[in-house]
Amino acid sequence: MSEIKTIMFVPGAWHSPDCFDSVIQRLDVANYRSLKIHLPSVNPPIHYRDFGADVTHIRTQIETAIEDERQILVVVHSYGSLPTSEAIQGLDVNTRQKQGLKGGVAHLFFCCSFIIPEGQSLISAFGGNRLPWFTVSEDQLEVQPATPDKIFYNDCNDTQVKDAVASLKPHSYQTFYSPCTYAAWKQIPSTYLYCRRDAAIPISVQKMMVEGTAKGYAIKTEDLDASHSPFFSKPDDLSAAIRRAAGERC
Fold first, then answer.
1. Which residues are registered as beta bridge partners of 217?
2. Inter-CA distances, 35 with 28, 151, 193, 204, Å
3. How far apart are CA 21 and CA 11, in angstroms?
4. Which residues have CB under 8 Å from 222's CB, separation 6+?
């Protein structure tokens, strides 16, 4: 059995981590402990001007999770990889071992997410321009997706699409401009899940990040014929990929 038996889920923009529930149910059966992170930047009372609140919250949750010396695998979806990477600094297994501590982040699982180098942001990953399906408020503080059914859920059934769209919440737009100062994927073993039908982060961009930005770093890859939301359309395949990243043969 794998040493990693705790999985932390960090969603992307607009989403609640409840989107992972079908995957978590499958991991529960396989005796994994799952932890869900609600991002402060999703539907906040007052919109944030950077991703600092997300970083702080994720880091606090990781610190709590490893208090009992657990090794954890962190699943990041879409935007979620940016504040998570920032939050992980110094909390990985190898760094903690050097400090005489046990436990820590042992693996990162990128679910059609962003691999961003130091100094870059989500927006800069797209050439510095907002995407055409962003609906941004006049004060530039809030962003919503204009066509989430087509962008996020293009391989989901009608019921899944209806429920998923209804659950989306406004996101703090300025978090997309926050530059990363730490690239966790350079230090922590990682897996990237390619989603070939992703309309939010096209497969060409996914491969550019893994094969270009992260060239020279040992990032394993998985591949699914799925949209940006495999946790809805392919929960069996996604849970199996996560278990393999945790060290299982399945």
1. none
2. 11, 27, 20, 31
3. 12
4. 191, 192, 193, 194, 241, 244, 245
The tens digit of pLDDT for each residue in 153-196 reads 999 999 999 999 999 999 999 999 999 999 999 999 999 999 99
Is 0.85 topped by the overall pTM?
A: yes
Separation CA 165–CA 14 (nearest Å): 10
Residue 141, CB-side half-sphere exposure with 13 Å CA sphere: 8
The C-alpha R_g of the chain, in whole angstroms, comes to 17
Beta-sheet strand order (sheet of 134-136):
134-136, 142-145, 171-172
- Give the end-to-end CA distance of the chain in Å, rounded to a whole number: 11
- Asked whether the predicted pLDDT for residue 203 surpasses 60, the reply is yes
Res. 129 pLDDT band, cuts 50 70 90: confident
Segments of 97-196 assigned E as strands: 104-111, 134-136, 142-145, 171-172, 190-195
Count, residues in the chain:
250
